[in-house]
Amino acid sequence: MTINHKKTMQTKPLRFLCSLCSIAITTWFSHAAETSHQTPNIIVILADDVGWGDAGCYGATKVKTPHIDRLAREGQRFLDGHASAACCTPTRYSLITGQYSWRQNAMGLNKGVAAGDSPLLISPSMTTAPGLLKQAGYQTAMIGKWHLGFGVDRPDYNGELHPGPLEIGFHEFFGIPATNDRIPTVFVRNHRVVGLDASDPIHVSYDKEEAQKLGLSPFAAGRNRIGWGKGGKSAWWKDADIADTHMRECIQFLERNQNRKFFLMFTPHDVHAPTIPHPRFAGSSGLGNRTDMLHELDASIGAILQTLDRLNLAKDTLVIYSSDNGAYVTDEKDHKPNGPYRGKKSQLWEGGHRVPFITRWLGHISSGERKELVSTIDIPATICGAAGVKLPQNALPDSYNLFPSLRGETNAPMRDHLVVMSGTGHLALRSGNWKYMPNLNLADGWQAGKNKQDAPARPALYDLAKDPGESQNLFSQQVQVAKKMADLLEKTRAQPVTRPQ
Ligand code: CA
Fold it and tell me: What is the pLDDT of residue 36?
């Protein structure tokens, strides 16, 4: 009896361990069953207001971007990559949800950008790419500019900033709430403002009347900003240190998670206004602060790539680099921020939304130049594809999984059309070489005057293969093509899901 009892005592933990092993093996197989490849760590870097021509690998000669160029050399450089919108918030929404932002009826998504007192613009009930990666076992972090709001009605900067990034799929968040030119000028970690002194609470308003009533001021952290605020002085950032602060957080995240699968979304504030580079970059381009900030951006990306090298993770990590919209200037002496493309940030012209788009996974995706039409809205399905995550039906509804194509599958579905949105919520359609705008009067985005908006609509059609600068409106000559494009735009607007299922 004694022996039997002892046997029982010994076998119980063994059985328990075996059943644990069996669960682990079953889980591994069920995950492996969907994945025919090794799944990588994932880093998505989305720069701010960086144009197509703002890197050496896209033709720039006056600014030096050795680390972005290295990514391009070791990966795939897309020539026809687009932000899904020509300004910050809508592109960032689509980057996380895979849904065209204009399908949502909220300020900041169907036009304009979010204010610094915006509620969270992504419903926590929505399926998101970070949420799917989290479910698949990835440690998920968002570091950098958020600009998608906090809270249900408005953010509580003195209490819990809830819901926010942590409620839509990220395990951790560190960064700036909106833009570097918007109040409040503080860093947030997870649900709290960093370094806030409770005796000097933060007040924020984007309503002039309310701001006046509360005695709020546009002055914060050394200069005037957009919005009005008061208090929180102990938490104010120093503009010139924002890039280094974000970079340090990224490196620490990589070091902490080097032995597990991770997803890092890094959204630098470079090169959004106010352009205040760290003193070690000031004057480095000889062209001005914005291009000095490009050097700062490149150095941050270099620090991340060097960290991957140091931790021996470069061959285990897919890196994607792009920008949230085109540059807001078109000419800086001998430098053309948007390359040969017409227009700038907020506009429907190519310069508003055609951006750098680079993918690298050393040893797993070949290097080279790609001419296919791709967009930042494709990043969510692509990273889920890389992670072997099977998308739930209708999840990430407008996002194409580029991963099979990145891996060299020749028959992989690529997008044959793309809708892009201006900063004023107006749409244009790309398909093949063609670009269609229902109303040319609105192409200038935030710069389109009211008289233009009230004028009768003038449709426009451009052949970008022959006319990349969009100077010849072919609408009257190419009536059939224009009609096809107009119909496709209407169909895309009406269809809630456009990705291949
Ligand atoms: Ca931007």
Answer: 63
Q: Average pLDDT in the 31-42 region?
A: 70
Distance CA 82, CA 325 (A): 8
Range of the domain at 423: 419-494
Indicate whether 26 pLDDT > 60.
Answer: no
Residue percentage of the chain with pLDDT more than 90:
89
Q: With 60 as the cut, is the pLDDT of residue 31 above it?
A: no
Residue 21 has pLDDT above 90, yes or no: no
> DSSP labels for 242-290?
HHHHHHHHHHHHHHHTTTS-EEEEEE--TTPSS----TTTTTSSSS-HH
Centre of ligand 1 to C-alpha 410, Å, is 33
Asked if residue 162 and residue 288 are part of one domain, the reply reads yes
Expressed in angstroms and rounded, the spacing between residue 92 Cα and the centre of ligand 1 is 9
Q: Which residues pair with 192 in a beta bridge?
A: 189
List phi, psi (to 5°) of 426.
Answer: -95, 150
Locus of tokens 């496709």: 488
Whether residues 480 and 346 fall in one domain: no
- How far is residue 396's CA from residue 95's CA, in Å, rounded to a whole number? 9
Name the strand (E) or helix (H) holding 381. helix 379-386
Buried b or exposed e, range 301-339, using 16+ CB within 10 angstroms: bbbbbebbeebebbebbbbbbbbbbbbbbbebeebbbbb
The total of structural domains in the chain comes to: 2
Distance 434 CA to ligand 1 centre (A): 25
pLDDT tens profile 50-75: 999 999 999 999 999 999 999 999 99
Per-residue pLDDT at 312 exceeds 60: yes
Å from CA of 324 to ligand 1 middle = 5
CA of 409 to the centre of ligand 1 (A): 33
Q: Of 370, 389, 410, at which residue does a domain stop?
A: 410
Residue 166's SS3 state is helix
Q: Model pTM?
A: 0.93
Same domain, 385 and 405: yes
% of residues, the chain, pLDDT over 70: 93
Calculate mean pLDDT across residues 119-128.
98
* H helix or E strand, kind and range, residue 76: strand 76-82
> Which 8-state DSSP code applies to residue 496?
S
What is the CA(451)–ligand 1 centre distance, in A?
26
Distance between CA atoms of residues 228 and 208, nearest Å: 8
411: CA distance to ligand 1 center in Å?
Answer: 34
Q: State in Å: Cα 294 to ligand 1 middle.
A: 14
Whether residues 157 and 306 fall in one domain = yes
